[in-house]
Amino acid sequence: MVRTFLFTFFSVLILAGCSSTKLAYRYADWGIVWWVDDYVPMTSEQESRLEQDIRDLRQWHCSTELPRYSEWLTRLKRDVRNGDLDASTVAGHQDTLFSFFPPLMDRAKPAATELLASLSDEQVRQLATNMKDSQEELEEEFLADDAEKTRTARAERTTERVERWLGSLNDRQRETVSAWSEARGEQTEIWLEGRRNWQQALLDALEQRDSDGFAGRISYLIDNNEAVRGERYQQMMSESRTAMAELMTSLLQQADQRHLDHLLGRAEELAGDFDTLACVSEDTESRNS
Hints:
By secondary structure, the chain is mainly α. The protein has 15 helices and no strands. The chain is globular, with a radius of gyration of 20 Å.
């Protein structure tokens, strides 16, 4: 759940445009609500408690974490301007992005644990049913085609995401993305398998949500997310992290000046958002909307 929260947040914040970044940051449900609303109808008391937890989390994140993001973007812009985009530099930026996750996960743990502990038996049954249905839908969507179509779809998704930062890719870059996707093998199958493993572990933990050790179980699921998903998933993530850094290095080395200009423009827009986004109260936000 919290992993979904993180990637939902970064997808909205990092990939959004300038004005929409501010709007999303102010009013987004911060992933936890999206996840819970998707799977479990909440009581009014649960919704009220969670809304307050999310307000507190957002205020902490805005005042504590956004400055770190601004510092990273400043370094990224400097490296782009200087043409310093070799493998070591790209890997360093990737490490910085990954370093943003643990503090956010730690801060979200109490709210996630409190919400999960408050679920009724009926809500847990609904959660299990809805997660099962969602898993089956994903497997049908991503595994229904043959291997070649799966690889093609993966390449298209990767190209779309990269082009948000670099603009339209040239022919050589498209060939690089295609080859990269070809080498990913059974990545989709392993991801779905890991997703199923983690959800089952969550349901097992929820069977003991009234026990003193429940908070520790949820903390373990969050801190050891990849291990819970299985050995194949762990290996895939380790390989994928290296492969992604190599892909980005190749694409940047194959870039035209227009790609670097596009990247610099995106980074400047986002840095401007982080620098001007005030950590204000909900009432102030409502008056200014």
